[in-house]
Specification:
Elements: H1 18-32, E1 40-41, H2 66-72, E2 76-80, E3 83-87, E4 98-101, E5 103-105, E6 108-111, E7 117-118, E8 125-127, H3 137-142, E9 153-155, H4 165-169, E10 173-177, E11 181-186, H5 191-217, H6 229-250, H7 262-288, H8 293-296, H9 300-315, H10 323-343, H11 352-376, H12 385-409
Parallel strand pairs: 8-9
Antiparallel strand pairs: 1-3, 2-3, 2-10, 4-11, 5-6, 6-7, 10-11
Length: 410
């Protein structure tokens, strides 16, 4: 069987923009470009009963190759409808997860004492009679996959039930295996909430495009249309919809068992506070800085914070494929705000030096959010844990320098 190739990400840092530009791009490549994103592997839902890569060609092979190397260097592996995540390190939250002893097996991910297997590599066998399935696997069999095109082999009589791709896609099983015990639960996020998150994400990305345009070429704050009451009524509706979807998708994770790691639960709570602070500042600036109201609506940092929380709600982990680009966006915005604070004449601004102090506190909060996002999510994206730790130390040193500069300027 062909082994699974990890996705290698290569960055060419030479852009022909001079020595300083080359150095800056090289630094960004060092900090934000892990050599291989082996911590997360996407799967296809069209290759039942066996698990394969999205192109449907490479088999997810647990027995040898790169996947075996990733498993041996990880604390455990988590498999659900979003894909395969290799949990590198962290304290686990397994309250609410059911567990079954499961030992390594050359023909599957693992095999239970009763002979049932999780994610076989060859054939998937299920019993025709659920009541004959042995022990703890009977509960899984009774609520398992019932798809007619699952590609499984039905045996009678039989006492085994092999968990396969069908159980992950159709029955929405969420499985975690640590090498000795397999834990499982059911994904509870409804389909309509996934649709709502998708619509809100598209809207927020369009807002980011508008913000980038305003940052690069400036915006016009004059005109009757943007100050009309109806425009702000529409914006109020937009903010209400975004806030409702955000709360519905994130608040349940504070008390249910969907987040596997303790530090991800702490990240969820702190990022909700981060978004709330930026929302309060947005309302304050819109109220008292009437000349720049459009500029203060749904700021870049607020949108990025919301998108980070939405990716956490979708993947149930911060070690997901989108945390890297969102972290780059947050970091570049912090760098831009640093230049803005240094060059702006705050004495001539309407909010005056109160605005400077407010921006200083927000800048410190943004740096903390950037560091915490890197620590909880992006640090786990490196092939080797040492590389991720080194990257985090470099980012901490850079953030310390930025913080000292901000405090000195203030």
């Amino acid at each position: 069987m062909a082994s699974l190739p990890l996705r290698t990400v290569t960055r060419r840092c030479s852009l022909g923009i001079g020595t300083l530009g080359h150095w800056m791009m090289s630094l960004l490549c060092l900090l934000w470009s892990p050599g291989a994103l082996g911590y997360f592997v996407s799967i296809s839902d069209q290759t039942q009963p066996l698990m394969k890569t999205p192109d449907g060609y490479f088999l997810i092979n647990w027995a040898h190759g790169d996947l075996l190397q990733m498993m041996r260097s990880s604390q455990g592996v988590r498999i659900n409808e979003r894909g395969i995540q290799f949990v590198r390190f962290g304290s686990l939250r397994t309250v609410g997860w059911e567990s079954i002893p499961c030992d390594p097996d050359p023909t599957s991910l693992c095999r239970t004492p009763g002979g049932s297997r999780f994610f076989p590599l060859d054939h998937v066998y299920v019993s025709a009679n659920v009541s004959s399935v042995q022990g703890d696997m009977r509960g899984i069999a009774s609520t398992g996959c019932t798809g007619a095109r699952s590609g499984r082999t039905i045996l009678e009589p039989s006492t085994v039930y092999d968990v396969s791709l069908c159980d992950v896609v159709d029955s929405r099983m969420d499985v975690y295996w640590d090498g000795e015990v397999v834990r499982f639960r059911r994904m509870t996020t409804s389909i309509w909430l996934y649709v709502a998150i998708s619509i809100v994400t598209v809207y927020l990305v369009s807002c980011i495009a508008q913000n980038l345009t305003s940052l690069l070429v400036g915006i016009q704050n004059k005109g009757v249309l943007q100050e009309s009451a109806w425009v702000w009524v529409v914006r109020l509706v937009e903010v209400t919809v975004v806030g409702t979807v955000l709360l519905l998708s994130t608040l349940p994770m504070l008390w249910n068992d969907s987040l596997l790691l303790v530090d991800e639960l702490a990240y969820l709570a702190l990022m909700l506070a981060y978004v709330l602070v930026h929302f309060a500042v947005m309302c304050y600036k819109i109220r008292f800085d009437s000349e720049n109201r459009k500029r203060h609506f749904l700021t870049f940092n607020l949108i990025t914070g919301v998108l980070l929380l939405l990716t956490l709600a979708i993947y149930k982990t911060m070690a997901n494929p989108y945390v890297g680009i969102l972290l780059v966006m947050l970091s570049m915005r912090c760098f831009y705000k640093l230049l803005d604070m240094h060059l702006m004449d705050w004495g001539k601004m309407k909010l005056g030096y109160i605005g400077l102090y407010l921006e200083t506190l927000l800048m410190m909060l943004d740096v903390f959010a950037m560091l915490f996002t890197h620590y909880v999510g992006f640090r786990r994206g490196f092939m080797f844990g040492f590389d991720g730790d080194v990257s985090f130390v470099v980012v901490c040193l850079f953030s310390w320098f930025v913080s000292r500069f901000v405090i000195k300027e203030s």
